[in-house]
Automatic annotation (TrEMBL):
<dbReference type="GO" id="GO:1904669">
    <property type="term" value="P:ATP export"/>
</dbReference>
<comment type="similarity">
    <text>Belongs to the CALHM family.</text>
</comment>
<keyword id="KW-0407">Ion channel</keyword>
<dbReference type="GO" id="GO:0005886">
    <property type="term" value="C:plasma membrane"/>
</dbReference>
<feature type="region of interest" description="Disordered">
    <location>
        <begin position="259"/>
        <end position="280"/>
    </location>
</feature>
<dbReference type="Pfam" id="PF14798">
    <property type="entry name" value="Ca_hom_mod"/>
</dbReference>
<feature type="transmembrane region" description="Helical">
    <location>
        <begin position="21"/>
        <end position="37"/>
    </location>
</feature>
<feature type="transmembrane region" description="Helical">
    <location>
        <begin position="176"/>
        <end position="199"/>
    </location>
</feature>
<keyword id="KW-0813">Transport</keyword>
<feature type="transmembrane region" description="Helical">
    <location>
        <begin position="49"/>
        <end position="70"/>
    </location>
</feature>
<dbReference type="InterPro" id="IPR029569">
    <property type="entry name" value="CALHM"/>
</dbReference>
<keyword id="KW-0472">Membrane</keyword>
<keyword id="KW-1133">Transmembrane helix</keyword>
<dbReference type="GO" id="GO:0005261">
    <property type="term" value="F:monoatomic cation channel activity"/>
</dbReference>
<keyword id="KW-0406">Ion transport</keyword>
<protein>
    <recommendedName>
        <fullName>Calcium homeostasis modulator 1</fullName>
    </recommendedName>
</protein>
<keyword id="KW-0812">Transmembrane</keyword>
Length: 310
């Protein structure tokens, strides 16, 4: 149990590195999922485009939402945004910083999925096979005399090797669309890299003090929330110990007699532990008082101006 507690404390103290690791694992998972995914184009004009583009768009949206779900700072951001002002004003720049930080991490896995999908080219072939100009590949007799509907039905079968008879045209069309898809993939990677470079390069051009301020207070909000939760847990644990101890003292006088037969050292240790639990109560010893503390913490956060100890 202690090992799990130490591990949990380590993850809490290194949350940023931990979240970066989670984003990296999600990126690898997205690539692995696509590699193990069996692509099967419907080869029907009415569904090819929807299936191909859907495979390119829907999974990245899911990965993006999953990135928000796995990020603990989402709840911190939501609480800070919705809380009453109370004695502490809300800083929009801090909220923007937290939101941008969460968004940047959540975009990693979707970007990997889109890149891998475009480089592979199967979804692009499925989506745009019906838009091909078959005459460009040197064999117009294949569609000669066909109506527009029959022509689209024939072109929709290009991604399906077993349904399209002309192997030469199919290979030429597949290579053509795959090249376009890979070109789009490289353009997408170039754009993402360029945007990341601009963000890194432009940020120091603005006031560094403002950036440090927003970064500091975003970390403060996260750490304050964790410490408040830990303090509540310690208080609840001590409250339960003292309450149960007093319950047994009041109910059974035999408990007092039982404790008197213990050694002096055990008695001293028990008194020290009880005194420690009493101190952790911090003077709050009633349910209504604790409810009031929790309510005030939510509705009226204390101002961030510490008093100097006299």
């Amino acid at each position: 149990m202690d090992k799990f507690r130490l591990m949990f404390q380590f993850l809490q103290s290194n949350q940023e590195s931990f979240m970066n690791g989670i984003c990296g694992i999600m990126a690898l998972a997205s690539a692995q999922m696509y590699a193990s995914f069996e692509f099967s184009c419907p080869c029907i004009p009415e569904y090819n485009y929807s299936y191909g583009i859907g495979l390119l768009v829907v999974p990245p949206i899911w990965f993006f939402m999953l990135g928000f779900v796995l990020n603990n700072n989402v709840s911190v951001l939501a609480e800070e945004w919705k809380r009453p002002t109370g004695g502490r004003r809300k800083d929009p720049s801090v909220l923007r910083y937290m939101f941008c930080s969460i968004t940047q991490r959540s975009l990693i896995a979707p970007a990997v999925w889109v890149s891998v999908t475009l480089m592979d080219g199967k979804s692009f072939l499925c989506a745009f096979s019906i838009s091909l100009d078959i005459e460009r590949f040197g064999n117009s007799s294949l569609i000669k005399g066909l109506s527009e509907t029959d022509k689209m039905k024939l072109l929709a079968k290009i991604p399906c090797e077993k349904l399209f008879d002309n192997k030469q045209i199919r290979e030429a069309a597949t290579k053509y669309i795959t090249c376009i898809s890979q070109a789009c993939g490289w353009i997408f990677l170039l754009m993402m890299t360029f945007i990341a470079f601009l963000i890194r390069a432009i940020r120091p051009c603005f006031t560094q003090a403002a950036f440090l301020k927003t970064k500091y207070w975003s970390h403060y909000i996260d750490i304050e929330r964790k410490l408040f939760d830990e303090t509540c847990k310690e208080h609840a644990k001590s409250f339960a110990k003292v309450c149960i101890h007093q319950y047994f003292e009041n109910i059974s006088g035999e408990m007092q007699h039982f404790h008197q037969h213990h050694s002096k050292d055990d008695s001293d240790n028990e008194d020290e532990n009880r005194k420690s639990d009493e101190e952790k109560l911090l003077g709050i010893r009633a349910q209504d008082d604790m409810n009031k503390v929790l309510w005030n913490w939510h509705t009226c956060k204390p101002a961030l101006a510490l008093k100097k100890d006299e």
